[in-house]
Every structure is written in structure tokens, then in C-alpha cells.
Amino acid sequence: MLPFQSSYRAHEMLSTQVAEATIRAMRRVGRGPVTGLPLAFSITTGDNVDNTQYNELRWQIDLLDGKRIVPDSGDPTKYEGVSDQAVYDVRYWHPDGPPPGQAADLPTANFGFPRMPGLLDACRRPFHARGIGMPWMSVFGNHDGLLQGNVPANPLVSPVTTGNTKIYDLPPNTDIVTLAGWLLKGDPRGLQTLFGGPTRPVTADPNRRPLSRMETIAEHFNSTGKPHGHGYSAWNLATGNAYYTFTKGRVRGIALDTVNPFGGAEGSIDETQLAWLTQKLKAGSRHYLDESGRVVRGGKHDRLFVIFSHHTIDSMDNDAGTGRVLGPQVRDLLLRFPNVVLWVNGHTHRNQVIAHKRKKSAKAPGGFWEVNTASHIDWPQQARTVELVDNRDGTLSIFATMVDHAGPTSYGKNPKSPLDLASLSRELGANDWQDRGPFPAGQDGRRGLIEDRNVELLVPAPFRF
């Protein structure tokens, strides 16, 4: 529960290898599976890091740019975390097995997790990333902007993340509901309780420092990849706003920042961003619908709009703070603009495709599609290609195709390479005992329904191309 969901995964020490395997898979694909055209760009839909940390953000940028990756922190000669034997806790998976005389950990004893001596060294081994090999952009997610994706930044946290002690449990008899309320409200008792839990020694590392939204934006300019700033511009640097637009031919991409700075894992936007979004939509639509459903004239040129965000419409229900705009209001705004055909997002770690139809009484038929893609950290560790096609018959097709990462189906007895380690991560993710259904009929866990994966989605063409 809040604020601790997504706080631990047995395979999280393999995250950089999974990202590398995903990047290699996208490079192998190279072209749209339907059109055969070169992929125009790649975009990550948020939660590019786990805990707003500088070292995590550098891994993401350097992986996409094709740099040398050192997936480690603190002491470069040893793993320091909950999976080693320095402090043995049976609730965590320990691939080296238990210390002499101790019982097996619960993931091994109850769920068949393997013994893999040497894994904690293999996962830290440096490697040279392949690089995405195309323009790439990022969207801001709750884990990019909030501590553990839930809690606003606090100056008391930085000494803990960069220091020489690691908290690995809550104090005895902690009331988790009360603690969650304190943390989400910024009550000092929340951090005091967290910091009062049992700790273990680790090696201090200033690269684990938390980043502000402004610092995260600025770091995207420290990159050899294209485009410069990866969607962010001088305006973002000046204002600290993490939303932006970009153009590919007749398509205008709009990247929203749906993170609520007041805290909470779910999303929303503020009224300023809503006004900005409305202005961008009007400027790229020669005609649209006003609030009463009448057709009105907009800008001089038509653009085809694709919206990108971290949160889904349904998960934009976080009204913490003041002046927050929730998902249904944003959806209703988009439905007034026939040029909007697609909203691409993440957050739920689940493949899902949803149709948002305009009212039958509206003078412009159709609506837009919402396409959500599973994450790279949880099973099934997939990405997705999206192609927009003018059918020349008054309709557009949106082809969405799933892409498995490049990790092989078998990782062998002693996985060491990034791809073999990614393969192991996928298997462990599928066996996550914290995420075991029951799932709705027809669904394969986070893979979703068949209709949520490889699909052709039709919309009326809003203008002639």
C-alpha cells in the first residue's frame, strides 16, 4: 500500500540490463512492422528512474546515448543492498543463499526462486550500451519527481540517500496507514518514523542525491543524443515546467507532466498546464468544437495530435493540493479536437487499449484512442511500436505492435552478459509473488487482453493530408 507499493522487486538489480535489452530490441526492429518506414523517434512514458536520484537518471540517459554503464553505487568492489548477507532478512531474495545455519529466504522456500551464486557481482559488471540510434525523448513520471514515486522532496532525505547507512525496514509496530498519511501530508513525523527503522552500513555516494524537477530537466541537456534537450527547451529550463511539444511532419506530439507535486502516486495537471494544452490544440486545429459542441474556427494550419503522458486518464484522480485538473476533464477537452487521435501513456505497468468516443450528437464523429504499454521492470517487460497510416479513404489507422526485449528465452546456468541477465529478470518478474492475480477473465496478468497488444485502431481522418 501507499507509500510502499513498488518499493521492492527481487530482480531490480537487473534494471539497467533490461533497459539495454529493450534498446537493442528496438534497434533490431528499426522500421515500422507495417509500413516498413524507419522509426522516427523513441519516447519513454515516465518513471525513467525509481527514486529521483542523479545516478539513476544518468544510467537512463547514458543507456539511450550508448555510453559506458557502471550499474553500481558506493563501494565498487561489492554489492551493498538487501540481497546480500550483511543483514540477512528472509523477506528478501538472497541469490547467494542463506548464511550458515539460517533458513532459506521466503522467495526461495515458497516461490521457487533460484540459488545463483555470483549474481550480485555479475549485475554490477560495467558494460558499453548500444544506444537507441534514433532521436529520443522522455516524459516526466511520478518516480522521476517524487521520492519512491509518492512523497514530495524534503531536504532531510538527501543525507540519507547519499550517506553511509541504508534503512531496510520500518520500526517495529509501525502503523502503515498512519505513516502513509504523514508522508503524503508532509508531516515531519513521517520521515522521523522512516528514519527510525533498522539500518545497515553502506558506502556513501554523492551520486545518489535526489534531483529536483528543474535539475532533471537540465540533465537532459547533458547528452550526446538527439534532439538537444530531448524535448525540453530553454523555456522548460526557465520555468521548471516539464511539459513540451515536438513536431514530426504533420504530427504534433504533446508531452504532458501529470505528476502532482503535492504527492501521491496518481496524477493530475494544474490549471496553467490545461490552459497551455488548450492553446496548443487550438493553434494546430483549423476547426474544433466549443464547449457546447458547435464547430468553431481555430488556427491557420492542421496538425495531427498525439498526446504523451505518464499517467492514464483513469489514474489522473489525484486532487491533492489546489487547482488540480483530473483525467476526465482533460479527456473531455481532447474530445473537442478531432485532430487528436491518440494518447500514449504508462504508469499502470499493464498493456491496455481504450476507445474514447465523441458523443453521437457531436458534429464531428470519432474520438481518440488511449494506448497504455507495460513497463520494463515488471512482467512482461515489453515495449511497443506505434505507426500512423493515412488509408486514403477518409480514415487513419494506428498500428500498435508489441516488442519483447532482446534477452534470450534461456539465460543458462551462470548469466553474466546484459542480455542473459535481462532474460533472468524477465523470468523473475513473471514469478513476482507480490503481483499474482487473480486477473480478469482472458487477461494474462499485465500483458492484458489480446485486444490490448497487437492491434489496428481506426479513426476518421480529421483533414486531408
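The record above closes out task 2.4. Task 2.5 opens with a second protein, given below.
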Amino acid sequence: MNYELPVHPEEATKRLFMAIPKRTKDILEQRFGLGKNPKRLTLEAIGQKYGITRERVRQIEADGFNRIRKSPQLAELKEVFVSLENYFEKEGRVIKEDKILKTLAPHPKHENHIYFLLSLHAPFERFHDSDELHERWTYGEEAHDTAKRALKGTVEKLREIGKPVTEPQLFEIISSSAKNAGVVDDSANQALLANWLGISRLIAKNYFDQWGLIEFPEIKPRGVRDLSHMVLTRHGKPLHFSAVASGIGKLIGKPVHTQTVHNELIKDSRFVLVGRGLYALKDWGYTAGVVKDVISDVLGKSGPMAKEKIISAVLKQRFVKPNTVFINLEDKKYFKKLADGKYSLK
């Protein structure tokens, strides 16, 4: 949804440039991509073009800003900057850069004009991206510090939970973190919190609209194995590897090789082969290994048991025929039949 400024951003820029000399205007146009070339040039690139140092370009840029800020043209356009301040105030004072540009620019070709107007207005400050936060603009240093503390608390809580959460749960977490960071209750509205979440590089949404840290494989899957884990977790019960492959294809929007999925499931200890081509998650309580290993695990935990009880216990772990369990149970190398007819480990 666009937010309309009282004066078109391109028109505002044109009027402000009336306050500066032509060369200064040319340099600012190149620095902010306001001319025919929409690419923002570096100080170095502009310096080479004019045969001057990058420091001299920086000085010319700073002088141009000072002239504009003291000009009658700026005073005439005061309502534009008041409108920008109101936008930031309404949206929580800290907003991801690309969201600001897309919201305030009537058309993508006007985004550089919005960027210029923000750069010109002293109360606004731009922050480069980091490992934790995207490029963003802030209206007031205190708001930026508060947002960072709220996000830090949210990341810590999500890491403590250790798994994805629903969107309502996420907003409960960040709302609580915002209060701890000093935000009063009535100002922590959902739009504000959503903008703060938008600047985080550590928190993201997965294919199922669940939220969590990008370090969670369920949020940012790293290859076929993590995608398989997501599919099985979502399904909630064992699946054939071909069905897992089909599920992955639906998630990522392109087919994957069924045999590749099978090979990756075999290699990862998170998955347990519980039947012919049928896989389950170890987290669901399935014992790893072949039928013999499951029998050994059952007897190791429960002691001697009757054949029927052993078969019943194993069939909860493996999708095989009862006779398959019995055949394995008759292996005298691992199991023995007691005088009372029960079986035990040898």
C-alpha cells in the first residue's frame, strides 16, 4: 500500500536543486541516481569522472546539502518532510529500507528521489545491513536502540523454544520483548512490531507460514535432508520416500529426484526406515536399525516377554508382517526361548 506525499518526490527534488550550482546538482544527481542513469555512483567513480579526489566530491556533496537545508525552497517544502516524519511515527520509527522506498515512491523509478529526501532530512538516519539486521532507516536514535533490544529478546526466546512458532505466537513473543525493551503497551501495535521484524535477518517465515530463526532447519532448510524433515514433520506420520520427494517438489515448486531423496534419508540419523521404503522421524520415538535391533531394544527395556507381546511391540515400530518379527526372534545367535515360553536376549 502506497503512502502519498503532498508533493511528488521527483517534483520536490527538482525544486530543491534550484538552490545549488549546476556542478553540485550534477554530482548529487549522480550520487543518488536522480538523472538518466538510476545507478547511484560512488565518490570514487564521480571523482574519476571530474578529475578530483573522492574527498573533494564528498565536500561538494556536503556543501550541496547545507545549501539546500538553508534554502527557501526547503522551507516551502516543509510539508513533505513533516509527512515523512508522520509516516515513520505511524510505522514505529524504524523501517526496512526497501519497504520505505516501495511504500513512498509512486513508481520504482522514483525510489531514488525518496532516498535523497530521506538523506537530506537530518532527523532520519540510515544504517547499513549487518549480520543481524537489514538496511534500515530510523527516526530517532532511541527508537533504533529499542527495536534492537526487542529483536534481541525475541531471538533469544525463539532460540530457547528451539522450534518454529505460529505468527500469533511470534507476535506475543516480540510484544513481550518490546515491553521489556521499554515500549509502553498501547504503542506496541502489530504494524510497528511487523516493521521491526522486517529489519531482522535472523527471523524468517517458512513454507508453512511458521516463524523462527534462520538457523532452524525447519525455517531455512539446507538441502534435501532438511526439506525431507519439513515434509515428514508436517505430515506427522511415516511416508514412503517417493511421497517425501513429491512433498518437497510441491514446497520448492520444482521436481526432485526420488532416488536422491532416498539416498539422503538413508544417510541422516534423524530418519528411521520403518518399512519397505517407508521413513519416520527418530524424534517420534522410532528405534533405529533393522527388525532384530528393535526386538533387542524391546527386550532390553522390558526383560523376557511372550512372543505375542514382542510382536505387538515391534509392529508399533516397524511396518512389517508379524511373521517377519517371528523369524528374527528365532535367531538363536541373539535371542533365546526360556522354559516358560518367553523370549529374552541371549
